Amino acid sequence: MAEPTDAASTRAAGTDDPPAEAAEPAEERTRRLGAGWLLGWLFLLPAVLVLGVLVAYPIVWSFARSLFGAEGWSDFTGLDNYQDLFTDDDTFTALKNNLIWVLVVPAVVTAFGLVFAVLTERMRFATAFKLVVFMPMAVSMLAAGIIFRLVYDRDPDKGVANAALVGIDEIFSEGAPYPGARPRPDSGLDPAGGGFLTAAQHQAGTPVLLPLVALPADKIPSDARPAASAPPTGDGLSGVVWLDFSRGNLGEPGKIDASEVGLPGVRVEAVRDGRTVASATTAADGSFRFGDRATRDGPVQLRLAASNFEQAFDGYDWLGPSLITPAIIGAYVWMWAGFAMVLIAAGLAAIPRDALEAARVDGATEWQVFRRVTVPLLAPVLVVVMVTLVINVLKVFDLVLIISPGSSQKEANVLALQMYLASFGGGNNQGLGSAIGIVLFLLVLPAMLFNIRRFRRENR
After folding, report:
1. Mutual angle of helices 375-394 and 324-349, in 10-degree steps
2. Is residue 418 assigned to a domain?
3. Is 213 helix (H, G, I), strand (E, B) or coil?
4. Could you tell me which residues come within 8 angstroms of residue 257 by beta carbon, excluding any fewer than 6 positions away?
5. Measured in whole angstroms, how far is the alpha carbon of residue 185 from the centre of its chain?
6. Per-residue model confidence (pLDDT) at position 337
7. What is the arrangement of strands in the sheet containing 195-198, beginning at the earlier edge strand?
8. What is the Cα–Cα distance from 311 to 166, expressed in whole angstroms?
9. Residue 332 lies in a domain
10. What letter does residue 54 receive in the DSSP assignment?
C-alpha cells in the first residue's frame, strides 16, 4: 500500500491551506508603499503643472490685477473695479442680459431636447431626424454667427427670417393698393394721419382732381383704365384720382393727359369738422362720386385714406436694439437643441419600459404617462443638461460678438463680451476686465461644483 503524499498528510491533519509564506517585514512594506506613492505623484506631476499654468495661475493673476486700475500695477485701486462693475451702465446691461440667458436659454433648450427625444421614439426616420437636429453642433460659433447674421438680414430678399414672414403675410393680407404713392406737389393735398387731406373745401357740382405720383409701373393694377377726362357731375360731389405721369414726362402737371391712367380701388372720404361723413371707392378709370348727402350740410374736405398708402409688411429688424437678444438666443437654441436631444434620448432609452406599460394598463393617457412617469424618471438627466447649459451660457461670447452689429451691441452685451471690450476692445482697462472675469468665474463655480458632487455621488 502506497504511503500518503504530503498533500494527503496535510488533509489528514485537518487543513487544506498550503503552507503560509513568510510574513513581509514591516519595513519592506512601508518602503514599497512609499515608492508607489512617489511614483503616483511622479505621473501626476505633468498634469498638475499644466493645470497650475493654465488654470490656477490665470485665476490668481486675474484677481491680483483686478485690484489695480487702468494704469497698471502702479495704480492700486482696491475693490473700486468691483464697485464700478455694478454701477457702470454697460456692465449692468451685460449682467441683466446674462440673467436673461441663464433663466431662459437652459429651460428652452432642454424643453426642445426633451420634445425631440420623445418624438424620435415614434418616428420611422428617427436616425435621420436626429442627424439633422444634431448637425448644428458640428458648426463653430463663428460660422453660426455669420449664418444667422444673414438669416436675420433686414431685407426680405436676403434674410430668410423676414422672407418667410413676408411670404406668410402676403398669403393672409392683401396689403395697401398703392404703397409709397404721394400727391403731386402743389396739388392741394396735405399729409394727414398717414393719408392726404385737401386743404380746400369742396361743394357739389365741381369735379375734384387728385393727382398722385411716385408709383412704380409694377404697382399699377392690371384693370386700370385711362383716367376719366370728364368726371361725372350733377347734384353730388365727384372727382378723379389718377397717376399724373406719362412716359417721357411730356404731360402737363395737374391735368389729365390722354396717356395717363386712373387708379382704381382708392378709398376717398368726405370729411367735415374732422369727422368722416361719407366714403367712396374709385372705379377703373379713377373716378368717384358722393351722393348729395355728403354736401347737404355744407362743403367738405376730401381725404385719401391712409389704408391706400400703407407700406407692405417687410419683416422685423431682428438685429435692432429691441430684438437683438432674442435673435441671438434663437441662434443658440438652434445650435444646442441637438446636444440636449442626444443626452435626453440616451436617458430615455434607459427607462424601464415596464413602468410605462404599467401606467398605460392602469388607464393613464399618453400625456399623463409623459408628465408623471417619463419626466420624473428623466429628472437626473434633465438636471445634468440644465446645469451644463447654465455653465455654457454664462460664458457665451463669440455668438454675441458676431451677430450683433455695432449699433445694437450694447443692448446685446453679456459679461464675457464686456470683459473683452473693457480689456482689449477699446476700454484699455485690464483691471476692470479682470474684475469681470473673477465675477464670471464665481458665477460659474457653483454650477461646476454641483456637477462634480453629482458625478461623485453617482460613482459611489
Report:
1. 140
2. yes
3. strand
4. 246, 250, 251
5. 44
6. 93
7. 189-192, 195-198, 301-304, 267-272, 275-281
8. 12
9. yes
10. I
Q: Which three cell numbers stand for residue 99?
A: 440673467
Q: Whole-model pTM?
A: 0.73
Q: 352: exposed, middle or buried (C-beta count within 10 Å: 0-12, 13-18, 19+)? A: exposed
Q: In angstroms, rounded to a whole number, what is the distance separating the alpha carbons of residues 121 and 349?
A: 9
Cell triple for 321: 436694439
User: Which CA distances in Å does 240 have to 263, 289, 324, 397?
Assistant: 9, 9, 46, 60
Confidence of residue 177 (pLDDT cuts 50, 70, 90): confident
Measured CA to CA, the distance from residue 193 to residue 275 in angstroms comes to: 13
CA distance 229 to 233: 12
Rounded to whole angstroms, the Cα distance separating 386 from 392 reads 10
Report the candidate in 225, 195, 220, 223 with the shortest Cα–Cα distance to residue 210: 195
Q: What is the pLDDT of residues 266-313, one digit of tens each?
A: 999 999 888 888 888 999 988 888 877 777 788 888 999 888 888 777
Looking at the 3D structure of the chain, how many domains does it have? Answer: 2
* Average pLDDT score over residue span 94-106: 93
Taking a C-beta distance cutoff of 8 angstroms, is the pair 68, 75 a contact?
A: yes
What is the extent of the structural domain holding 107?
88-164+318-428
* Within-domain flag for 177: no
Angle at 432 between CA 431 and CA 436, to 5 degrees: 120
Tell me phi and psi for residue 68, to 5 degrees: -120, 160
**Domain termination site, one of 274, 308, 342:** 308
Q: Is 192 helix (H, G, I), strand (E, B) or coil?
A: strand
* Backbone CA torsion sign across 312, 313, 318, 323: positive
Confirm whether 402 is domain-assigned. Answer: yes
Task: Say if residue 193 is in the same domain as residue 116.
Answer: no
- Position 12 scores a pLDDT of 44
**The C-alpha cell of 294 is what?**
355728403
Q: What single letter denotes the amino acid at residue 150?
A: L
Return d(Cα 202, Cα 300) in angstroms, integer. 5
Same domain as 250, residue 195:
yes
Handedness of CA 88, 89, 90, 95 (dihedral sign): positive
Q: Are residues 345 and 420 in the same domain?
A: yes
Q: Which of 308, 331, 356 is the last residue of a domain?
A: 308
Residue 293 to residue 99: CA distance in whole angstroms:
63
What's the CATH code of the domain at 338?
1.10.3720.10
The type of residue at 187 is S
